[in-house]
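Supplementary Methods, section 5.1.

A reviewer requested that the exact input to the structure prediction be made available. We therefore reproduce it here, unchanged from the version used in the analyses.
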Amino acid sequence: MQCAVMLGKRGRRPLHTATPSIARTNMKTPAFTTRFQISFGDCDPAGIVFYPNFYRWFDATCHAWFRAAAGSHARLCEALGSVGVGLVDSGASFRSPATEGDVLEMALAVEAWNRKTLRLGYRGTVGERLVVEGFELRAVFVREDGRMRAGETGPLRTLLEQSGATTTTAS
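The structure derived from this sequence is encoded token-by-token as follows.
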């Protein structure tokens, strides 16, 4: 399935096409859930959420999960001996609009632990209605020999599992 992003002169041919690559997230058991009250400032002139805000809410959900586990991102990094737990890749599929006044519930689930990366899946709903599905591929960044690189994710996994921050809800 391809979708045209922009049409060329007079709408005749696509200038750019993209093949959607976002697989449905595996939300069997969310590890963490947050809620966001959508305000006027989150919306575009059409009255629906401006899409970059969903990425902001993915990130905020992840960092709320880290806070629940370690108190803060800084403490988490200190415990791991890392510079940060940052993004390598991200994506989203927008399923239905969200508008001012809606309460968006964002569920985070760990989709995969790899040696050097962690894939998080997100599922945003308003009530029972699916609004957005997305993912983030994160790495634990460390400095070694004056360079930054992806470190092992095992210590992060252990810390998160031992903290009990795997089935928490935050508002």
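The two ends are 37 Å apart (CA to CA). These observations are discussed further in the main text.
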